[in-house]
Amino acid sequence: MTPPSSIADRLDRARARIATAEAAVGRPAGSVTLTVVTKTQPPEAVAAAIAAGADVVGENRVQEAQARWSEHPRPRELRLIGPLQSNKAGAACDLFDVVETLDRDSLLEALAAEAQKRGRCPRLLVQVNTGEEPQKAGVAPREADALIARARGADLPVEGLMCIPPANATPDDHFALLARIAAENGLGVLSMGMSEDFETAIRFGATHVRLGSALFGPRARPAG
Ligand SMILES: *Cc1c(COP(=O)(O)O)cnc(C)c1O
User: Distance between CA 150 and CA 14 in Å, rounded?
Assistant: First the structure.
């Protein structure tokens, strides 16, 4: 088992690498938010990360997040980074500060209905399938403008975009594409970059990087 101190050390190292990457492209210190991806991690690892100051947390499943964050004190910000089924839109509204995975009309409608009932809605990112991979969630790049417009038309608080570039490809073009779609739509938040490529993502304008294995080590079971 990983001793808690080494999670704190890895968190420090990741923060230092983020600061270096910000400085390298002349971006202000602190302009990139580190989202600590706690999915599949055991409670003691999550507790160690929280004790070391992790305050923005990403989970990829609604039920796992519900179970975990009813036991722990909530982090300052909880973000859903995995696919959301429309029938869990209400639960997601109740639990998350940000949902990064709006990618289709049916989910848009479900979120709008649940938000209306509650009088509040998580901030939203539209997930774009930059590699147009059939097995991957996300709206196709050429359909992103229309989905963003429909979400705005439904008064949903869309603040940015998210992508997961294809594995085994150079991410540069994917990050550039996401940044371009965001700029064209006047969106300021870019959630892109994971353990293997977050410094590249920062070069292309990421405002949020999502780190799991760089902090916790390799995941014991697949993320799904
Ligand atoms: C698991 C996951 C991450 C973290 O990936 P690492 O490579 O472990 O840093 C980031 N984003 C999403 C959407 C994920 O599902």
Answer: 37
